[in-house]
From TrEMBL, chains A, B:
<dbReference type="Pfam" id="PF17767">
    <property type="entry name" value="NAPRTase_N"/>
</dbReference>
<keyword id="KW-0597">Phosphoprotein</keyword>
<keyword id="KW-0328">Glycosyltransferase</keyword>
<dbReference type="InterPro" id="IPR013785">
    <property type="entry name" value="Aldolase_TIM"/>
</dbReference>
<comment type="function">
    <text>Catalyzes the first step in the biosynthesis of NAD from nicotinic acid, the ATP-dependent synthesis of beta-nicotinate D-ribonucleotide from nicotinate and 5-phospho-D-ribose 1-phosphate.</text>
</comment>
<dbReference type="InterPro" id="IPR041525">
    <property type="entry name" value="N/Namide_PRibTrfase"/>
</dbReference>
<dbReference type="InterPro" id="IPR036068">
    <property type="entry name" value="Nicotinate_pribotase-like_C"/>
</dbReference>
<dbReference type="InterPro" id="IPR041619">
    <property type="entry name" value="NAPRTase_C"/>
</dbReference>
<feature type="domain" description="Nicotinate/nicotinamide phosphoribosyltransferase">
    <location>
        <begin position="161"/>
        <end position="342"/>
    </location>
</feature>
<dbReference type="InterPro" id="IPR007229">
    <property type="entry name" value="Nic_PRibTrfase-Fam"/>
</dbReference>
<keyword id="KW-0808">Transferase</keyword>
<dbReference type="Pfam" id="PF17956">
    <property type="entry name" value="NAPRTase_C"/>
</dbReference>
<dbReference type="GO" id="GO:0016757">
    <property type="term" value="F:glycosyltransferase activity"/>
</dbReference>
<dbReference type="GO" id="GO:0004516">
    <property type="term" value="F:nicotinate phosphoribosyltransferase activity"/>
</dbReference>
<feature type="domain" description="Nicotinate phosphoribosyltransferase C-terminal">
    <location>
        <begin position="390"/>
        <end position="447"/>
    </location>
</feature>
<keyword id="KW-0436">Ligase</keyword>
<dbReference type="InterPro" id="IPR040727">
    <property type="entry name" value="NAPRTase_N"/>
</dbReference>
């Protein structure tokens, strides 16, 4: 288990009561004015899969629970709000004591899910449940986006080492941190992002930059300096000038350093035809007796390029994957929503064209088939009985976590089991002609119809 | 001018010396061990334009300067580093006193630029210049990505109000904050993200969510509650059930509230055919005497959809633009790099296949043509004389800012002038057959050739 103190140094943006859309607070002012604060249920789901995808992987739940536990309006934030002149003094006073007192049901992080299935359900007094919309979505959307993309890389490279290299082109600091976490959850071996490794106890990896080689007059000298400083952990970047010539320098250096008991761990290739270079470099290393030295490749990799390299049986041990993974380049956002499905005991539905939602508090049941593979899911009302495993489980009641924080490694094992349970057509990189089956219960369909006719009668 | 104290509440991730790639610090350990710390120059540039683009807009400089000014290794961070067991005690002690003491030359935020042109150039002792790579890129890449995308939305909708609605699907908290800033810089009117508006003094906008309407039994009652709470600033969302019926409710409500001197500012439509709905709603509002009530539309908008709506002369006053803008959905990353171009007075170059860089410390000169339109740029060595305006200007020397912080509004005016100076083919949304001309000086080409032959001789 994580020790709570240790894990909360910087990984969430601090003091984020105002990290929200303005309209959340103007709506709260209005709810306050007319005394509306009955229990409300909101559900977070994805409307449809991105074009190239067969499944998604839920992530970000623990971050949401931290946010909900910590939520409060500090004096500094309340003064900022007062200065906008948009809120009444009485309303601002009511925010002083606001805490999240609701309940959360959710799919475990690392669970595979499909369109229309709620992955997170919040029930709380209306103002609390509304207020948290923007940040809850912000955390779950991005974590889920990255875990879903990273899971595809994992599926494309069974048994290979995958490392997150993406901080520099991640969309801001938090994206760098959260993508390290989400990709590790999905099965990556670790990250190059130092702060993320420290915050979340994720294994850290690093090689060297081209600038290190360039700063030296001689490439071989650069290699030697680096190995002497990292005698137990040296990974050398060999494509600054000529990849194969550099590989030969690695062999020569290794022989020279053997007497001093220093060993070179691996080499990295970052440009050119990675398959061809890896083959040539492997031969050079093996002939030089360096068959234990690993080859890591990098440079605009994604699941398709990885699959191609694996398929070509290129002698590659690991992949450094950055930008295309943590920006989810083929689908940089999910069509997700956080929608009110019940208020004051009455189911609710919006009917906006192309964006209609299913009403009522829901549950997802999953049925497994032969060899534990996923067979089909059913989306039902919470009080319906159904065969299968209910995926939404209580994780917070009355504002209190129900159990200890799970370690990221435990979640990661769950994610691995989930990926193993995917039917072949769903695990494939290309979109399946036969999407995964998600049934919607008759009672749910009836309820939607009933609400529509009531609304039309208005 | 911003008052420094006020603007630095949360907008940068705090205490971020370790918000970097592990390899920056292992390289520093090695530079420390072999005593390398001569002046190094790194340049940040974009290798090529995304497929659909004709130009980019530089952004993020002020954030970089803040980061460089604040950079230090606190005791907490040094202890974290020590616990990794990867660094020597002597090296860790050297980090205690490390500050950024170098110089920065950069294009002003809001400046239009093109491939291969450095937008930021850092010269500092090697260790400092290397250490800052990851975070400098992280800040400049994302800010530039968003400003460049937002600028296209601005060009597509002359005279319209554009508002950033994107927090919920931004890639983490900092992306939400930074995209509000970058889109305002590029010409947006404001943001819905409360914390960003407060941190950067950006005008804030907000309407209401569907859940607000749904939480009420009656849509008309929801509208009335909201107007009574926001009597000076009510924007009503009218597509929860039936857009035109809701517009009629707005007219009826407005008549009833007129006696109490409350007015409705605007309506928002978020689904369906926005052009057709806007026309019908405009008619209903006008016939009801509400020609001052504005129409804002939202829902998966980007520059192409905006252009189409503007071209159809839909009676739309403003656009709420979120996800596709702040994830830069057609191009969620830029092919940018931060490369060593000179060390210890000697020009450097990497020759990796497909990723070769131009050596030496460089400057960009811009020549304007008729009516102040951009004509062509020249990429030259810093000591070359050339006609035109030098775009890289000193902003920090010896670790000290050269001038007061610019306000975001001043930068925004610069960005507006830049967009007005674009030739028509470059300002167009579709990629031009004739890209903008960027010449590379003969001396620069000669220097690259000379370094190649020296390297080959090794």
């Amino acid at each position: 288990m994580f020790r709570k103190k240790e894990t909360k140094v910087t990984h969430l943006y601090p003091d984020c009561a105002l990290l929200t859309d303005l309209y959340e607070l103007t709506m709260l002012q209005s709810y306050f004015d007319c005394g509306m604060n009955e229990p409300a249920t909101f559900e977070l789901f994805v409307r449809k899969l991105p074009a190239q995808r067969n499944f998604l992987m839920a992530a970000g739940l623990e971050l949401v629970l931290d946010y909900l536990c910590d939520l409060r309006f500090t004096d500094v934030r309340l003064e900022m709000l007062a200065r906008t002149g948009r809120f009444s003094a009485a309303f601002l006073r009511s925010l002083e004591s606001l805490r999240f007192t609701g309940s959360v049901y959710a799919m475990a992080e690392g669970t595979v899910f499909f369109p229309d299935e709620p992955i997170l359900r919040i029930t709380a007094p209306l103002r609390e449940a509304q207020l948290v919309e923007s940040r809850v979505m912000n955390l779950v959307h991005y974590s889920t986006l990255v875990a879903s993309k990273a899971a595809r890389c994992v599926l494309a490279a069974p048994g290979k080492q995958l490392v997150d290299f993406g901080l520099r082109r991640a969309h801001g600091a938090e994206a760098g941190i959260l993508s390290a976490r989400a990709s590790y959850l999905a099965g990556f071996s670790g990250t190059a992002t130092l702060q993320a490794g420290l915050d979340f106890h994720i294994p850290m990896f690093g090689t060297m930059a081209h600038s290190f080689v360039q700063a030296h007059q001689d490439e071989g000298e650069a290699f030697e300096h680096f190995v002497r400083s990292q005698p137990e952990n040296a990974h050398l970047l060999i494509d600054t000038y000529d990849t194969e010539i550099a590989a030969k320098k690695v062999v020569a250096l290794s022989k020279r350093l053997a007497a001093e008991k220093m060993t070179i761990k691996g080499v990295r290739i970052d440009s050119g035809d990675l398959s061809i270079h890896a083959q040539k470099v492997r031969c050079i290393l093996d002939e030089g007796g360096l068959d234990a030295v690993t080859i890591l490749v990098s440079g605009n990799l994604d699941e398709w390029r990885i699959e191609k390299l694996v398929h070509a049986q290129a002698p590659i041990d690991g992949f450094g994957i950055g930008t295309r993974m943590n920006t989810s380049a083929d689908a940089p956002y999910l069509d997700c929503a956080y929608k009110l499905t019940q208020y004051a005991g009455r189911p609710r539905r919006k009917r906006s064209e192309g964006k209609a939602t299913l009403p009522g508090v829901k549950q997802v049941f999953r049925t497994h088939g032969a060899e534990g593979k996923l067979a089909w899911d059913a989306l039902v009302l919470e009080d319906e009985r159904h065969a299968g495993v209910p995926l939404l489980q209580p994780v917070m009641i009355d504002g209190q976590r129900l159990c200890d924080r799970l370690t990221l490694d435990v979640m990661r094992q769950h994610a691995q089991r989930e990926l193993l349970s995917l039917p072949e057509r769903i695990a494939a990189l290309n979109p399946s002609n036969e999407p995964y089956r998600v049934d919607i219960s008759e009672r749910l369909v009836d309820l939607a119809r009933e609400l529509d006719s009531m609304q039309s009668a208005h």
